[in-house]
Design goal:
The protein has ten helices and nine strands. The chain folds into two domains: 173 residues, Rossmann fold (3-Layer(aba) Sandwich), CATH 3.40.50; 92 residues, Pantoate--beta-alanine Ligase, Chain: A,domain 2 (2-Layer Sandwich). Helix 6 crosses helix 7 and helix 9 runs antiparallel to helix 10. The protein has 283 residues and is of the alpha/beta class. Bound molecules: pantoate. The site of pantoate has 10 residues, from strand 2 and helix 6.
């Protein structure tokens, strides 16, 4: 049985634990999460364990990345089962600060990034989002000083934003993305899938199906616009309202209108009932 992870909630305790690791010349990997862990998070942890001698998982539901109208209050919190899963995976340390530790009174600093953060995808519909993510991830990196950090490709734009930020600020952490983990019917795993009613859950795999169908048409040389429009129709006919369904350059996230313009990523965000889902695939 692996040892249960050390649960750390204060900065002095975190510093002591990290000093111990550094003294042993450990390589440290960080997997930042907001808890409500699923198999996608576990895949990140397993990769982190293969690449580093010690793995820290942070669990912090970050108020700064939610708009007042969003689901900060109802975001799933499953602390006990999260810790049990992390123990089973042999995680060394769980960093679980409270909001006052992360944002003490008088906190007045924000990391604001451009480039991928202003690509016109998530930022168009959640303008507060990346400022909140980069600020908290910048803080998590400063607090845990990891050599490596792992983020899921499901949040593709977030992965690009955090990678850019780590490079631009010379944070000395190598950011790695991992393949999206899917349910058997193709739905990307997400902590927010629990919001779906049974009917919505039955409709949700259409996002992946529509992207796969569109990618197939694009690879077969179909007209680009027609293929994209066809994918969008599949999604809306299943009961979703689209925020976006777009083809972007997989590295720069620039809009793209031909497969010749570079590696292509299809990205979708769509709402059904009170749930907003995002997903993406490479073409
Ligand atoms: O992807 C998430 O769960 C969050 O955006 C992150 C990276 C943990 C920052 O709060």
């Amino acid at each position: 049985m692996p040892r249960p992870p050390m649960i750390v909630r204060t900065l002095p305790a975190l510093r002591r634990a990290l000093d111990g690791l550094r003294a042993r010349k450990a390589t440290v990997a960080l997997v930042p999460t907001m808890g409500a862990l699923h198999d996608g998070h576990v895949a990140l942890v397993r990769l982190a364990k293969r690449r580093a001698s010690n793995v820290i998982v942070s669990i912090f539901v970050n108020p700064a990345q939610f708009a007042p109208t969003e689901d900060f209050g109802s975001y799933p919190r499953t602390w006990k089962s999260d810790v049990a899963r992390l123990a089973a995976e042999g995680v060394d340390l769980v960093w679980n600060p409270d909001v006052k530790t992360m944002y003490p009174a008088g906190f007045a600093t924000k990391i604001q990034t451009e480039g991928p953060a202003t690509a016109g995808l998530e930022d168009r519909f959640r303008p507060h989002f990346f400022g909140g993510v980069t600020t908290v991830v910048g803080k998590l990196f400063a607090q845990t000083r990891p050599d490596l950090a792992f983020f899921g490709e499901k949040d593709f734009q977030q992965l690009k934003v955090v990678t850019r930020m780590a490079r631009d600020l010379d944070l000395g952490v190598k950011v790695t993305g991992t393949t999206t983990v899917r349910e058997r019917d193709g739905l990307a795993m997400s902590s927010r899938n629990v919001y779906l009613s049974p009917q919505e859950r039955a409709a949700a795999p259409v996002l992946y199906r529509a992207m796969k169908e569109t990618a197939k048409r694009l690879r077969a040389g179909d007209n680009f616009e027609a293929a994209m429009a066809g994918g969008a129709v599949l999604i809306t006919e299943a009961g979703f309202t689209l925020d976006y369904f777009e083809a972007r350059h997989a590295e720069t996230l620039a809009p793209i209108a031909s497969l010749k313009d570079g590696p292509v990523r299809l990205l979708v965000a769509a709402r059904i009932g009170k749930t907003r889902l995002i997903d993406n695939i490479g073409v």
